[in-house]
Amino acid sequence: MSKHEHTEENQKPIENVNEQAGETSQENAAEEQVSETEKLQNELAEQKDKYIRLLAEFENYKRRTAKERIELIQTAGKDIIISLLDVLDDTDRAEKQMQTDTDINHVKEGAFLVFNKFRNVMQSKGVKALESINSDFDVEQHEAIAEIPAPTPEHSGKIIDEVQKGYLLNDKLIRHAKVVVGK
To answer: Fewer CB within 10 A of the terminal residue: the chain, N end or C end?
Structure first.
């Protein structure tokens, strides 16, 4: 056996070891890739689950708020109606009194008490009458239904008469005043 042949035989096992080491490192790399893929799939599944739960929670929120809105609309006037029931009771009592009482002053006094109570209830709920007479005409607050010659030059462009009052609810206009304007 020559020196050269002996070296080649020694090299073959080294090559086999290197091939086996290469295969092992490829297997490790493949396992790491599988492990990484599983990890990403688990994270994806977790995110999908969170998304589905969040979507379901949002749908429940939408349904709940829609239901609450419907209930609010149905009972929105409840507070004012309850307040006006006292006034209604007073009008019933005043009507009974009008049928039996012959003194017109008593009837007038009772009617004025009912009217004042009604105004006070409305004011307590934020309703306020718009003062228009002798003020400048404002298209944002007034609706002119007629123009008449002004009695004096100072009344030109001002409101002479109020046919129907305007009202504010918490300082927001809810009904325009119908007015007569001087020209």
So the answer is: N
Residue in this structure with the two tokens 């790399």, named with its chain if needed: 29
Instruction: Give the separation between CA 123 and CA 84, rounded to whole angstroms.
Output: 12
Task: Return the H-helix or E-strand segment holding 146.
Answer: strand 142-148
Sign of torsion, CA 110 112 114 116?
negative
How many domains does the chain fold into?
3
What are the structure tokens assigned to 82, written together? 């309850």
Is the model's pLDDT at 25 over the cut of 80? no
Residues 3 and 70 in one domain: yes
C-alpha–C-alpha distance, residues 141 and 133, integer Å: 12
| Residues 73-105: tens digit of each pLDDT | 878 788 888 889 999 999 998 888 888 888 888
In DSSP terms, 144 is beta-bridged to 179
pLDDT at 24: 64
Contacts (Cβ under 8 Å, ≥6 apart) of 83: 121, 124, 125
179, exposed or middle or buried, with CB in 10 Å at 0-12, 13-18, 19+? buried
For residue 5, pLDDT beyond 80: no
What does pLDDT average to over the chain? 84
Q: Which domain holds residue 152?
A: 127-183
